[in-house]
Amino acid sequence: MMRRNGKGKTRGRLGVEAKEELKKTLLSFNNEEKQLQFGGSASSPNTDYSSPQHHHNMMMETGRGSPQEQQQRQQLTIFYNGRICVCDVTELQARAILQLASREMEEKTRTPTASDAISSSLHSQLYSPTGLSMKRSLQRFLQKRKNRMEATSPYHR
Amino acid sequence: MKTEMGMGGGAWTEEDKAMVAAVLGTRAFDYLMTSSVVSENLLMAVGSDENLQTKLSDLVDRPNASNFSWNYAIFWQISQSKSGDWVLGWGDGSCREPREGEESEVTRILNIRLEDATQQRMRKRVLQKLHTLFGGSDEDSYAFGLDRVTDTEMFFLASMYFSFTRGEGGPGKSFGSGKHLWLSDALKSPSDYCVRSFLAKSAGIQTIVLIPTDVGVVELGSVRSLPESLESSKHSRRHRSQ
C-alpha cells in the first residue's frame, strides 16, 4: 500500500527538503540508527516551532504507543506550507506523510499535463457554447437517472 | 480557423483506439478522429431556449393521446465562427429506456444476452476517454459512477461528443439542405443516416427523424417503426413550434 516516490520532484508544496528528510528517516529505521539528527539545528528535541498536534495538514498521533514503540521514534523536521514542525515520528507515521506528499505532488503534476496533452482547441470546447450545453444535459441526465433509480428501489441509497 | 482534432501526445494508445472503435463503430470513430472542429471563437446564433429542455423532455417523457412518445430527442444547436462557417453541436437532449413491449421482437430477442461485464467496462472507459478528450476534468467525470450503461444511454451519451459542419452526418446534411428526413426502418436500412448509425442500431432505433429549423436540427428516434404520417408529423411539429 505504501509507495515511495524516488524521483524527488521539486514541484508541489512539500519541498525537496521535506522529502529528503522523510527518506532519511526511513533509511534510518532500516539501518537501525537511533541517534540521527535532521534539519541542521535540531540539536534539541524540545525545539518546537509549532505544535505537531495542530499543524496544518498533519495527521499525526503523538505520545501514543508502548515504550518499545516510542524507542523507535525519530525526530523529524518538516517544512510545509510556510511552517516548520519538529516532531517525533514512528516509521509508520513517516511513511504515511511521504505517501500523502507523493499523492499531493502527483495530483499537482497530473492536472496540468492532462491539458497539455489535449490540443488547446479541444480544451476550449469545454467553455464553448457546446461544452456548456453538454454539461447541462449531462447533469440533467444523471439527475433523472438518479431519481428513477430511487423511485424503483426505495432501499437504494 | 479550423483545427484538427488531435489525440494529444501519447494520450491514446492503439488499444484505446481499438476499444473506442469497437464501442462506437468504425464510422463514428473515424469521424471523431478526423473531423475538423471549428471550436474557437464560436458564437451562438441564438441564445439558449429555456423551453427547449421542456419540449425535448415532453417529446420523450409525455406520451400523446395514442400513448406514443419518442425514445430520444436531440437538439443540434447551430454555432457560427468568425469566418462564417457554421457547425452543429450538442444543444440539448433527452432519452428514455424502451418500455415493455415497445421494441420489435427481433430487437428484443437480440437483446436477450447475459450482462456482458467486458462490454460494460469498455463502454465506461470510452465515455471517460471522450469526456477527457473534450476537456472534461476528473471532478465531473461520470462514466465510472454509472452502475451500467444501456444501449440507449450509450448512443445518447456518445452523441454529445459529435459536431457536424455543412453536409456532414445526418444533422449536417439536413441543415445544409433544409430538408427533413424520416427513416422508418433504420435497422434494416443498408445506408447509415449518420456516422452514429452503429450506436443507434445497437439501441434498437427503428425510426429516425431529422427536422431542420432556423437555429439547428431536431433529431428524434423511436424503437418502433413508424411510417411518416400526419399523426406523427403533427406531434413533432406541435412541440417544435411552441
TrEMBL record, chain A:
Residues 36-72 are annotated as: Disordered. Residues 38-52 have a biased composition (Polar residues). InterPro entries: CCT_CS (IPR018467), TIFY/JAZ (IPR040390), Tify_dom (IPR010399). One of its GO terms (cellular component) is nucleus. It holds the Pfam family Jas_motif. The keyword Transcription regulation does not apply. It is found in: Nucleus. Residues 69-103 form the Tify domain. GO terms for biological process: regulation of defense response; regulation of jasmonic acid mediated signaling pathway; response to wounding. Belongs to the TIFY/JAZ family. PANTHER family: PROTEIN TIFY (PTHR33077:SF144), PROTEIN TIFY 4A-RELATED-RELATED (PTHR33077). The jas domain is required for interaction with COI1. This is Protein TIFY. The gene is TIFY5A_0.
Automatic annotation (TrEMBL), chain B:
This is Transcription factor. It comes from the Eukaryota. One of its GO terms (molecular function) is DNA-binding transcription factor activity. It is found in: Nucleus. It comes from Vitis vinifera (Grape). The keyword Transmembrane helix does not apply. Its main location: nucleus. Pfam families: bHLH-MYC_N. Residues 52-235 form the Transcription factor MYC/MYB N-terminal domain. GO terms for cellular component: nucleus. Keywords: Nucleus, Transcription, Transcription regulation.
